[in-house]
Design a protein that fits this description.
Shape: globular
Strand order of the largest sheet: 1-3-2
Distance between the termini: 33 Å
């Protein structure tokens, strides 16, 4: 009978360790752009969507407003994003990219391929992993 409380028997532990490893692999590439990993996540959403409210952004990157607000303030200080209160409802804060934020997309284009190379993993394996993780996340968030 296996012990379910042994670390080696936990599903969450290798996922946790892999998440830490992936983020540490991102670090040198993001350091070149003076970005943190959570800032990079925000930018990826805004590069695609162009404008988001803090609430919409939080849902997409799985961060609450208490975590996002200081992160966005730092990004605004770096002149990467603009925050503006909605005129119809002042409780709502809208985010858009500055010119610098738009320009960073061009500089970040090769990060995914650099990451795969640094981790010595192929795209097929990463896509398979992403599919499984996304399936589980979708089940737990419904």
């Amino acid at each position: 009978m296996s012990n379910h409380l042994e670390l080696d028997n936990q599903v969450c532990f290798p996922i946790y360790a892999l998440a830490k490893e992936i983020i540490s692999q991102y670090r040198p590439f993001l350091d070149e752009l003076n970005l943190t990993y959570p800032q990079y996540l925000v930018l990826m959403v805004l590069w695609k969507e162009k404008e988001q409210t803090v609430g919409q952004l939080g849902e997409k990157v799985f961060l609450d407003s208490g975590t996002l607000t200081p992160l966005l303030k730092r990004m605004e200080q770096k002149d990467i994003v603009k925050r503006k209160r909605c005129t119809e409802d002042e409780r709502v804060v809208k985010l858009t990219l500055t010119e610098k934020g738009v320009f960073l997309e061009e500089k970040a284009t090769d990060i995914p391929s650099k990451l795969m190379e640094s981790m010595n993993v192929d795209e097929k394996d990463l896509l398979e992993l992403k599919t499984i993780v996304t399936k589980i996340l979708n089940k737990t968030n419904n």
